[in-house]
Amino acid sequence: MNWTQLPLGPLQTNCYILSNKTKECIVFDPGADGERLVEWLKENGLKPLAILLTHAHFDHIGAVEQVRNSFDAPVYLHKEEQDWLVDPTLNGSERFQLGKISGRPADHLLTDETSLTIGDFSFQLFHTPGHSPGSVSYFFEEGNAVFAGDTLFMGSIGRTDLQGGNHEQLLNSIHEHLLTLPEEVIVLPGHGPATTIGEEMERNPFLNGF
């Protein structure tokens, strides 16, 4: 299994492509630049099996429809944000004036699942609200990596001043779900470079003394 990080759009939101030897793949958070992303997938001969969203803020969903329509790939999203794909007010695109984003609802709503298997790809699911009410982190044990969205960054944590954000809830999510993973697990955040659980336990100033 291989993962590729593709920063997309004006906010350089990380889209991740997790692929296997047979060129099947999972697309995480296709945030923008839909034509470019679809072309990249086709050039690399990849077949998306699904689109997994860590959450539905506008900068993480801008290319969802183009990828979904191009490859007939179903979209997975937590039920707490089931209306966000269709509502520019909820997903924040109306507020930030970068173009209103709306599309079809998700094909699958995540609820209390603790695991998810799509083709050869298996994930452990953590509902990690705080940055947004439906934030989900996908732990890919086989690759020793967690797709954490905007929950945890290198040296920082997600903002909590947007729709449904809660600072205390975010810290609880990080400590209860992410920091309990092995220290060598790679954290793949929604923005910026990858890090590890161990690095953030030791050096992240937002987590010290919690």
TrEMBL record:
Its cofactor is Zn(2+). Residues 12-191 form the Metallo-beta-lactamase domain. GO terms for molecular function: hydrolase activity; metal ion binding. The keyword Zinc applies. Pfam families: Lactamase_B. InterPro entries: MBL_Glyoxalase_II, Metallo-B-lactamas, RibonucZ/Hydroxyglut_hydro. Keywords: Hydrolase, Metal-binding, Zinc. This is MBL fold metallo-hydrolase. It comes from Bacillus aerolatus. The lineage of its organism: Bacteria, Bacillati, Bacillota, Bacilli, Bacillales.
